[in-house]
């Protein structure tokens, strides 16, 4: 199927794709990146893709390979004229006024992309505690991409700060029994507590855990009220293997109940990311 072909699976008005990247290949790359871009992915291309599949809004997530340089992200948000929101990677020492300025340009969250690291930053340090407080004060969520086995203390710190947490890619548990892991149970507890959301996204990045089983547990734990859906377009590292249609098909397989699926696509995402209903 052509990538821009219309889908037979109808998405509700107001649907949100909650994780995508806009990429310029010739931008300087960070030294501690765990991936790198294979090709450009413009905001225009992304908006055309959303249109082709009946998706109203999108959330752009800063990729790790630019570090704390958010130039590409902010330019894309400006071009999208309110149709997109963004999560930015920032230094923990960033000022609250600078974050507020980014928020005025469409940034709705900050991202901790800490996957594939030999050692994690200390989220209990004064600098990171300060960053969490700034996020809380400004109503920015804290998006986390991290292996599930390292998730419990990070979730605990974010939840204790009063900031809202959004966890990438089903919580990224490890192995066939990942659904029974301590990290995934910590995620489920956080969902039930009510200040954490999780993305049903990028099943192709999972490490052996069945996405349908994870999705069922996530939906059951919160009645579907703390899940959002995303494609991870343009699928960095999997550019030739994944299509937008496959991402939609995965959602329908993971969440067969239409009412819950529509809540995930619209109401939940609008609530956490600030889109207009």
Characterise this structure.
With 277 residues, this protein is α/β, with parallel strands linked by helices. Helix content is 38%, strand content 14%. The chain is built from nine helices and eight strands. An eight-stranded parallel sheet has the order 1-2-3-4-5-6-7-8. Helix 3 runs parallel beside helix 4 (126-138) and helix 6 runs parallel beside helix 7. The chain is globular. The two termini are 31 Å apart.
Note the main attributes of this structure.
alpha/beta; about 15% strand; about 280 residues; disordered N terminus
What layout of secondary structure does this protein have?
Blueprint lengths: L15 E5 L22 H10 L4 E5 L9 H10 L3 E5 L7 H9 L2 E7 L12 H13 L2 E5 L5 H11 L3 E3 L14 H12 L2 E5 L10 H12 L4 E3 L14 H11 L3 H16 L4
Parallel strand pairs: 1-2, 2-3, 3-4, 4-5, 5-6, 6-7, 7-8
Describe what is shown at a glance:
It is built from nine helices and eight strands. It has 277 residues and is α/β, with parallel strands linked by helices.
pLDDT < 50 stretches: 1-7
Extended strand count: 8
Order of helices and strands: EHEHEHEHEHEHEHEHH
**Beta-strand content estimate:** 5-15%
Instruction: Give the averaged pLDDT, no decimals.
Output: 94
Q: How many alpha or pi helices?
A: 9
Strand order of the largest sheet: 1-2-3-4-5-6-7-8
What class, by secondary structure content? alpha/beta
Shape: globular
**Rg over CA atoms:** 17 Å
Oligomeric status: single chain
Residue share in helix:
25-40%
Largest sheet: 8 strands, parallel
- First-last Cα distance: 31 Å
